[in-house]
Amino acid sequence: MALAIIPARGGSKRIPRKNLAPFCGRPMIAWPIRAALESGCFERLIVSTDDPDLAAVAREHGAETPFIRPDHLSDDRTPVIDVIGHALETLEAAGERHAHACCLFATAPFLQAGDLRASADLIRKPGVEYVFSAARYGFPIQRAFRVTREGGCEMFDPGQFHTRSQDLEEAYHDAAQFYWGVRDAWLERRPVFTPRARPVVLPASRVWDIDTPEDWARAELMFRALGLDAP
User: Fold this and answer.
1) What pLDDT shows up at residue 122?
2) Which of 30, 140, 167, 215 has the most other CB atoms within 10 Å of its CB?
3) Which pLDDT value is given to residue 84?
4) Which H/E stretch holds residue 119?
């Protein structure tokens, strides 16, 4: 069995107390906790947080909080890989070792147990260090342009102006729902996006970046439309 770790700071600049704010009737962090528990993939599910209130809510919904994250790993510039490495190092110092650990994001209410089970199979394949959620870009990135200081526009790659959209290579981005990793990759802080990583492509309807109140409102509408708020 593997270990699940949810990094969850108490602070949030754009949406105050984002991890605790109610999303479709539950605290935001309660949704990834539920998916992790339903998946049956994990021996333990812990939340790494600097916030006692957030820790209490996490425990109410079935997670563990065996330690409080130190301040130097709790600002908005701390890399997630350092938070996961710290959690593994803390547990190993207490005599507990896991071959695989999965980082689940506290602000990923669309995370599904089935995605975790499918990705758990991938991380155990030879030569794989990481497995992560991904999504396709909805429009060819080769046709992107920038707005100039004068208010005009210029393409990042002018050579693609006459290329048909269907002839351009598909591009993908991190869906920010989960990262599986093998123990040594986490502890050595190896980069995720390498040939030794495997993406799990999710449908666009379940990939949402929730950074503003408007994002939040639209995400709740889609969440309910998909029936994901059912008991």
Assistant:
1) 96
2) 30
3) 97
4) helix 113-123
The size of the chain, in residues, is: 231
CA atoms of 223 and 208, how far apart (whole Å): 10
- Which domains are delineated in the chain? 2-136+172-223 (3.90.550.10)
CA separation, residue 184 to residues 47, 87, 180, 216, 223 (Å): 21, 13, 12, 36, 36
Measured torsion, CA atoms of residues 129, 48, 13, 23, in degrees rounded to the nearest 10: 90
Calculate what percentage of the chain has a pLDDT beyond 70. Answer: 98
Distances in Å between the alpha carbon of 157 and those of 10, 138, 150, 160, 173?
A: 41, 18, 19, 6, 19
> What pTM did the predictor assign?
0.93
8 Å CB contact between 45 and 6: yes
Give the pLDDT confidence of 154-211 residue by residue, as tens digits.
999 999 999 998 999 999 999 999 999 999 999 999 999 999 999 999 999 999 999 9
- Distance CA(48)–CA(43), nearest Å, equals 16
Cα–Cα distance measured from residue 4 to residue 100, given in angstroms and rounded to the nearest whole number: 9
Q: What is the pLDDT of residues 97-152, one digit of tens each?
A: 999 999 999 999 999 999 999 999 999 999 999 999 999 999 999 999 999 999 99
Q: How far apart are CA 141 and CA 122, in angstroms?
A: 28
Q: How many CB atoms lie within 10 A of CB 131?
A: 27
Q: What gap in Å lies between CA 202 and CA 98, rounded to an integer?
A: 27
